[in-house]
């Protein structure tokens, strides 16, 4: 019996959404995204799994996002701040107002929770 209050984050049997960075944000490469949304609520809460192939693009966050890297290696650089290399096992939050770049060095997969 499924619970209305418990949700497993899994990609089993879920068709991913495909995407890519907007062309005006692309810095290098040809990154391709796949997103498996497990939760999409009307109040602006989203959760699931996201994956990207190598490439680099500009990011601008208006939302709050918790990320947990499942596999791969990426570099997240904040404008005017430091660049951080993230890899399997790393967890972090990107807060509204974060601006910079995301560079995928090795195809990266993450679990995420976004609150608009």
From TrEMBL:
Pfam families xref list: Cupin_3 (PF05899)
**CDD domains registered for this protein in UniProt:** cupin_TM1112-like
InterPro entries listed in its UniProt record:
RmlC-like_jellyroll, RmlC_Cupin_sf, UGlyAH_Cupin_dom
- Identify this protein by name: Cupin
């Amino acid at each position: 019996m499924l619970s209305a209050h418990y949700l497993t984050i899994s990609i089993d049997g879920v068709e991913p959404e495909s995407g890519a960075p907007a062309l005006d944000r692309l810095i290098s490469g040809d990154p391709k995204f796949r997103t498996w949304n497990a939760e999409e609520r009307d109040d602006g809460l989203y959760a699931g799994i996201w994956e990207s192939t190598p490439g680099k693009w500009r990011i601008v966050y208006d939302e709050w996002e918790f990320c947990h890297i499942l596999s791969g290696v990426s570099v997240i650089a904040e404008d005017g701040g430091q660049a951080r290399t993230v890899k399997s096992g790393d967890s972090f939050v990107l807060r509204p107002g974060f601006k910079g770049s995301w560079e995928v060095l090795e195809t990266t997969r993450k679990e995420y929770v976004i609150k608009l």
